[in-house]
User: Fold this.
Amino acid sequence: MFFDYPPQVRKVIYTTNAIESLNASMRKVTKTRRSFPTDQAVMKVLYLALHHISMKWTMPIRDWKQAMSQFMILFGDRISQ
Assistant:
C-alpha cells in the first residue's frame, strides 16, 4: 500500500527516524521519574517535554510543495488550505 503513493508523498510520510527520535525523547522523560502522583502530572510532564523537543524542529520538510500538490490530488476532499 505504501508504494501505491507517488514518490513525493512517500518521501514525506516515511518519517520513522523522526518518530523514533520523538519516542525516545518522551521515554527518556518518563523513565527518569519512577512514579507520578496523578495522570495530570504525567500529561503535564509530557506536554512540557514535547514543547521543549519541538523547539529543535527547525528543518523544513523536503519537497513539501510537491508532496502537498500530490496530497491535494489524492485527498482534495479532506484537505483545506
